[in-house]
Amino acid sequence: MNAGGVPSEAQEQPTDADAPAPSPANPIRTVGGKTFLWQAGVWTDTTYEPDTMTPVEIVFLSDEYFDLLLEFPELAEYFAIGDEVIVLYEGVAYQVTAEG
Fold first, then answer.
1. How far is Cα 98 from Cα 21, in angstroms, rounded to an integer?
2. Is 16 helix (H, G, I), strand (E, B) or coil?
3. What does the longest C-alpha to C-alpha distance in the chain come to?
4. What gap in Å lies between CA 33 and CA 67, rounded to an integer?
5. Number of Cβ atoms within 10 Å of the Cβ of 27
6. How far apart are CA 58 and CA 63, in angstroms?
7. Tens digits of per-residue pLDDT, 16-31?
């Protein structure tokens, strides 16, 4: 704020897009026999190995997202835990992201 108590244009005002995703009350969830951990704003399948796997990125609610669910409807229960999810399914890692 400047001396008159009015916010200065030079100051950055935080936006919702800049805010980190809030941590859930329980950072561990079990869905359909898989366990997910809350890591850096992403629900991550504990069988996913980031050092050796490259996930297929899918934008949440995109055409590709719905196409994948049509092909593998069983993924819906995993994707339902949030809009940022990494799940390993039939040997393929899928990463659902909020934006492309």
1. 11
2. helix
3. 62
4. 23
5. 11
6. 9
7. 445 555 677 778 999 9
d(C-alpha 7, C-alpha 27), whole Å: 37
How many residues are recorded in the chain?
100
- CB within 8 Å of 59: residues ≥ 6 apart: 65, 96, 97, 98, 99, 100
Residue showing tokens 């629900």: 43
pTM: 0.74
Check pLDDT > 50 for residue 78. yes
User: Minimal CA–CA distance to 20: which of 53, 42, 45, 48?
Assistant: 42
Residues 80, 69: contact at Cβ < 8 Å? no
Task: Give residue-wise pLDDT tens across range 34-56.
Answer: 999 999 999 999 999 999 999 99
Q: Where are the beta strands (DSSP E) in 1-100?
A: 28-31, 34-39, 42-45, 56-59, 85-89, 92-97
